[in-house]
Design a protein that fits this description.
Structural class: alpha+beta
Strand content: 25-35%
Radius of gyration: 16 Å
Distance between the termini: 9 Å
Number of helices: 4
Largest sheet: 9 strands, antiparallel
Number of strands: 11
Shape: globular
Helix content: 10-25%
Order of helices and strands: EEHHEEEHEEEEHEE
Length: about 210
C-alpha cells in the first residue's frame, strides 16, 4: 500500500499498533450508548484533529471500527479511528514528527506525553525504533505510535483516536463480529462534496 505515492509502514506495524492500542481504552465507566452516537461523536473530534495536521504530514484515510475494550473491561466496547501519518520530508526524524503533531494539536487541548505502555522488543524486532505516546481529553484518548526513519522509509506511524468504553446494548456481539475481518472498517475518506463524512457502517477497505 502507498500513501500519496510514497512507501508506508502500514504492513510493518499493524500487529504492534493493535497490541499497543487495545491496552488503553479511552475514559468511561461503561454506560450504554448507541453505536451511532459513539461514532458520530468521535468523528467530530477526528475531523478537527485531521484539519489541524500541518502540510508537512501526509495522512491516509481514517479507518474506524468497534473493538473490545481493555482486558479489565471485557464486556465493554470502544470505537477506534486509526490513521497512518507520514512525514513528507525524508529527512524528518521521529522527534521532529512528534513535535509537529504536538504543536498542531496543543491548541485543541491535547497534551501528548510518553505512554507507559510501549511495544515489546519482540513486537518491534523487525522495525526501527518505535515509540508510543498518549493524550486524554473529554473522555477520549489519542494515541501515537511513531517509527524512526530508516534509509528505506521516512518517519511515520499511526495516530489513533478512541471513544470511552461503553456497552452497545443487546447487539454488541454482532456489531463487534461485523468489524472482526481486518478489512471491514468505517472509511473516513473525504470527497469534494462531503469533506467530513461520518460513515454509517463498515465497508471493505481498499
Amino acid at each position: 500500500m502507498k500513501l500519496h505515492g510514497r512507501a508506508t509502514t502500514w504492513a510493518a506495524l499493524p500487529a504492534v499498533a493493535l497490541t499497543f492500542a487495545v491496552s488503553g481504552c479511552g475514559g468511561g465507566s461503561g454506560p450504554s450508548r448507541s453505536p451511532e452516537s459513539i461514532r458520530s461523536s468521535l468523528a467530530k473530534t477526528y475531523w478537527k484533529v485531521n484539519a489541524a495536521m500541518p502540510a508537512a504530514i501526509d495522512m491516509d484515510a481514517g479507518r474506524g471500527k468497534f473493538i473490545k475494550c481493555s482486558a479489565d473491561k471485557p464486556k465493554l466496547a470502544v470505537y477506534q479511528i486509526e490513521n497512518m501519518i507520514d512525514a513528507k520530508d525524508d529527512s524528518t526524524t521521529a522527534a521532529q514528527l512528534l513535535a509537529q503533531v504536538k504543536t498542531a494539536l496543543a491548541p485543541q487541548g491535547w497534551k501528548i506525553t510518553l505512554d507507559k505502555v510501549q511495544p515489546s522488543p519482540t513486537e518491534s524486532a523487525t522495525m526501527s525504533k518505535t515509540t508510543g505516546y498518549v493524550a486524554n481529553k473529554d473522555g477520549m484518548q489519542l494515541q501515537l505510535l511513531i517509527q524512526e526513519r530508516t534509509s528505506d522509509v521516512q518517519a511515520g506511524g499511526f495516530m489513533d483516536l478512541y471513544s470511552g468504553c461503553a456497552k452497545l446494548g443487546k447487539d454488541q456481539k454482532s456489531i463487534l463480529a461485523t468489524y472482526a475481518p481486518g478489512d471491514s472498517v468505517d472509511l473516513y475518506q473525504p470527497t469534494k462534496t462531503t469533506p467530513h463524512p461520518v460513515p454509517t457502517g463498515p465497508t471493505t477497505a481498499p
